[in-house]
Write a structure and sequence with these properties.
CATH topology of the largest domain: Rossmann fold
CATH superfamily of the largest domain: P-loop containing nucleotide triphosphate hydrolases
Number of strands: 18
Number of domains: 2
CATH class of the largest domain: Alpha Beta
Structural class: alpha/beta
Strand content: 25-35%
Shape: elongated
Amino acid sequence: MNTEILSLKHVAAGYGSREVLTDVTLSVREGEFAGLIGSNGAGKSTLIKCVFGLIPLRRGALSICGRENAALKSRERARLAAVVPQSYHVEYDFTVEDIVMMGRNPYLSLRRRESPEDYEIVENAMKLTNTEQFRDRFYNELSGGERQRVILARAIAQKPRLLLLDEPTSSLDVHHQIEVMELITRLNQEEHIAVLAVLHDINMASRFCQRMIMLQEGRVFADGTPSEVINRQNMESLYQMKLMIHKNPLFHKPEIVPIRVMEEEKASLRQHIHVICGANGAGKLLEELDARGYQVTAGVVNQESGDWDICQELGIPCVAIAPFTPVTESDQTLNLKMMETADIILVADMPFGESNLNNLSGLEDMPGRIYFHKNALSNDHTHGALVKRLQELGARKKITYIGDHDAFLDLLKKEEA
């Protein structure tokens, strides 16, 4: 088992009369890359300051590499742990090499000046972070991304066993965010440095971190792999907003999709709306109908499709079938059963083929009003069977054709006015 590098047990800390951390217990082991997440004021940066000895503990115990943190001198702590802040400013014109060499200060003194070994360590740190190319440039002349790489090189030059990062990518563009996170990951994997990083971008944390620790109300609210921590309940509790969770198909990690903070205006008529969908075109509409308080059902949807994902996330009852399988009579029987009580049946923006045309069977016997999205006609792969079916259906029951889903929502609002 990897050595425990950082240990916090029932830690409490704060500022003046305000207690920010009330009871934090966690540990980080050698080679771990842990992301620290939480809302503003949850105590993430406070925890980093406690580890770095900038804020004293009120209660609890904190140790680094088995040594009590409070008993460590600053120089001793700096040999064990290095911090990369959000930003770092200097008053004077230091070169990049000067800044990186500052990482060797914990090992230097009046009696011990920079040695060939120190210069070799600094050289390697700059190579690892791709900063040796501007070693002679002044730090204050660099871009934000370049500066952050220099500060990371300085931390590497400390030869720490623990790397603490306080929102290291918050002021960077996407290119430099990924660059810095890739460098940190390389350090973690190749040098086996334990990493504890405060990160606001949950999707970035999910992609790069092996483990995520969620702080809330001064305590550890969740701790585990990204898949264990990033779920709808935890994330809605953290952000106080409606959102979805889906798995990134490239990295196979969970990601959040923010939906709304402000609640949608509730419908005055509590109607049951059944949405005939099944591909990827009705997701936004399903969410908006659900947000407005309608009773929403759907079918027949293909599992793993975007429409199915939305139904699963929002708990919308649906008739589902395996991907790339036809809608059978038994499937449509279940679909018709679900729409028996529907006030409105909406055929959403979706492609039609021979395999799912059965979605429209039996609609003439349903009591609900029928709306049909015109764009479905542009995705007709039935060689005329869809148009024929609509003509048969229209002869027995009125069909209202709509140009887009927003037009349908406007119709609902007019009904309620």
